[in-house]
Amino acid sequence: MKSVERVLKGDRLALARLLTQIENEDASGLEALSALYPHTGHAHRIGITGAPGTGKSSLVNRLALHLRQNGWSEQAEPEAETVAIVAVDPSSPFSGGAFLGDRIRMRDLYGDPGIFIRSMASRGALGGLARATVDMVEVLDAAGFAAILIETVGAGQAEVDIARMAHTVVVVDAPGLGDDVQAIKAGILEIADILVVNKADLPGAENTLRALQLVLELANTAQRTKPDAAARDVAPQPAWVPPVLPTVAIQGDGIVELAQAIHDHREHLDLSGEYAARERARVRTEMEELLRQQLLEGFLMHQPEGAFEAALELVLTKKKAPRQAVREMIEGKKR
Amino acid sequence: MTEKRLRILIAKPGLDGHDRGAKVIARALRDAGMEVIYTGLRQTPEMIAEAALQEDVNAVGLSILSGAHMALVPRLLELLEMQGQANVPVLIGGIIPDEDVPQLKKLGIKGIFGPGTSTDRVVESVRQAVQAAGAAQD
């Protein structure tokens, strides 16, 4: 498997080509992914999500720059981290095409072999990522990048897929996008490990910061995945309380604090045993999803030609309910 | 289920600050079902080549209004070749004097579009150039 060796050796063209194959669910690409899988598990995966126009790309740009120059923590000896960025933008529901513009904000990152930026279109997936995003992140992990920043589609309330694949989720808000009632709604705020109010130099930033802090106080600090207390032999950790950080990404303000907060969160995950719990939950979801998909494909392949379409007709003409039609297909009942 | 879509880099090298043309073309390619990666203004050939590599694009479209094409284009082609992407077709739009066209074609530019070119023609040329590049590789 030549492409696998080349990716592991740091060949950027081979990496880029493999990412394309995986994005297209090409068989040889998926085979390479399996071969690379044992090399994964070293990267810290950071999701950056939030509404359109909050400045996610600019924040990613500055954060990546900071990690390259100073690493995670201000206190420690500066140790630069290599950074991969996967930036997802929406596909047009009409043409299937896409305009991927996240690189426009990332021009500071050019010319650095420790950085790799890849844009991808959502290709119809609705959760803020594309179907292949997870697999592409695995490849970048195997290729040795220490931090992987995953920028989602501009997300509103329900695009929470990122919570299932990132270790640390940064939710980016900006002043003037909605009142505190918006903030109380379920969804994207609940998945935040770190909240950022970007464009904090704009009027109204104080209100946004206060509204988010209030929501955090209201919410019980229940975590998404609670590690089994019996299964860990470390001292119990206090629950993680998401910090609310003001930033001005285009000036670089607040980036040091953001990097520190991500670092702290990673430490919390490790010490509390939550890292392992999240990994287990993440891989479980992924395997269930694959199983579902392959069982579906396998089942449909063994159906008589046109059986599914015929059942679909019966449902559309209201002769049968969807659940009934599906059960009868499974039982192989004559129509 | 598997989708294979053309990925096209649209870039603006050089110092002029007008990217309306580039955006019109990007939009037309998007509406034709392609995935367009747009780099923004004032890119050096080095930046464009790096983006072409990381994004593994099927073609590169350059918008050049500054008159610097005879310096920028050969440099970009050289960089693409150095990084193993000599087969990626490059097309140009913008203000290109007629007398430069033969030289640019000779360098390997797969399409040159002046003001007033219909977007349909650009889309079709991009498709053909990508197809030809794929056929040459097989």
Describe this structure in words.
The complex is a heterodimer of chains A (335) and B (138). Chain A has 335 residues and is an alpha/beta fold. Chain A has 3 domains: 1-39; 41-283, 3-Layer(aba) Sandwich (Rossmann fold); 289-331, no CATH class. Chain A has 12 helices and 8 strands. Chain B has 138 residues and is of the alpha/beta class. Chain B has a single domain (7-137), classed as Cobalamin-binding domain (Rossmann fold, 3-Layer(aba) Sandwich), CATH 3.40.50.280. Chain B has 5 helices and 5 strands; from the N terminus they run βαβαβαβαβα. Chain B has helices at 20-31, 45-55, 69-82, 101-107, 119-137, and strands at residues 7-11, 35-38, 59-64, 90-94, 111-113. Chain B has a 5-stranded parallel beta sheet, sandwiched between helices. In chain B, helix 1 (20-31) packs across helix 5 (119-137) and helix 2 (45-55) runs parallel beside helix 3. The longest helix of chain B is centred in the C-terminal third of the chain and has 19 residues, at 119-137. The A-B interface holds A 12-13, 16-17, 19-20, 24-26, 91-92, 94-101, 103-105, 107, 110-111, 116-119, 121, 123 and B 1-5, 7, 26-27, 29-40, 43, 46-47, 50-51, 53-56, 83-85. Strand 3 (98-100) of chain A pairs parallel with strand 2 (35-38) of chain B, so a sheet runs across the interface.
Largest sheet of chain A: 7 strands, parallel
How helical, in percent, are the residues of chain A?
40-55%
For the sheet with most strands of chain B, the description reads: 5 strands, parallel
H/E topology pattern of chain A: HHHEHEEEHEHEHEHEHHHH
CATH architecture title of chain B: 3-Layer(aba) Sandwich
Domains counted in the coordinates of chain B: how many?
1
User: Radius of gyration of chain A, Cα only, in angstroms?
Assistant: 22 Å
Q: Going by CATH, what is the homologous superfamily of the largest domain in chain A?
A: P-loop containing nucleotide triphosphate hydrolases
Q: If you average the pLDDT of chain B, what whole number results?
A: 92
Could you give the count of β-strands of chain B?
5
